[in-house]
Design a protein that fits this description.
Layout (H helix, E strand, L loop, with lengths): L5 E7 L6 E11 L2 E10 L8 E7 L12 H9 L6 E5 L18 H24 L1 H4 L1 E11 L1 H11 L1 H4 L13 E5 L2 E2 L13 E6 L9 E3 L12 E4 H10 L4 E7 L13 H13 L5 E7 L3
Parallel strand pairs: 4-5, 4-6, 6-7, 7-9, 9-12, 12-13
Antiparallel strand pairs: 1-2, 2-3, 3-5, 8-11, 10-11
Helix pairs in contact: 2-4
Length: about 300
Amino acid sequence: MKYIVVIIFLSFASPFLAQTKTTYTYNIKEKDTLKLDVYRPENIEVNTKLPTLLWMHGGGFSIGSRDYVDDAQLCGAVTKFGYIGISVSYRLLRTGSETQFSCLCPKVDKIETFKQATIDYLDAAAFVVENAEMLNVDTTKIIAGGSSAGAEGILNSVYMKPYFVDNLNKYEDVKFAGVLSFAGAVVNASYITKANALPSVLFHGTADQLVPFASAPHHLCDPEKPGYLMLDGSKIIAEKLDAFETSYYFKIVKGGMHEVAKIPMDELDEIFEFFEKTVLNSEVVQTKIIKTKTL
């Protein structure tokens, strides 16, 4: 149980369900102490193992936190559905940079940021798997989830480990059962295959100006800009899943921009009904919902 330190324990009521929150340190990397918050139903029995949402917050790899109000609310809310919710910290490598993650940020720096975020997320997942009994986690039913930069991080972690990770053996026990992505993309969707495709919930706006809806440059950068980097967004991912006859729930917002990355708390019932059918009961469900953005 390397790096395991219980920082805080509290119990509180929410509009969803009474729950407990416990904070652990999962790794220390130079000046960064990386923590995760574990939300569990209150009075959970010792030997109970529950499906788990492993959540990565957004913020352009420069801002945000695991306990930001929306992220904490989501991870607490999933206990209503019989899940453990875990919100993770990771290194915000673009903090303090003049270019942040813009079109002026060199492509090589963007790739390195994606790589280190992938490694941090997989380190958090490895900690969860190693301590699954203590955390009440069913390691066969871990949903990788994130929004915006976090969605990019989890999608790259799920599908592009061979590209970003040098020592794959370190994460051989980490298996994901599903994906929850709000406005996310992968660096290269060709890494998604029939063998590794997972049941996925994808939300995305067709006019997203930061993370491409289909295949387009990150931040819609012009080719002559240092930060020109092609990414494959939710549309491309959904097409892959459709072709592989893998389950997906694809919510398209026509005209929607990057605000679609916001966690849709009022749609959690539909989202976790999908995971109940596909991840917990192994059904194949392919759903596409098209909504037009309203002013």
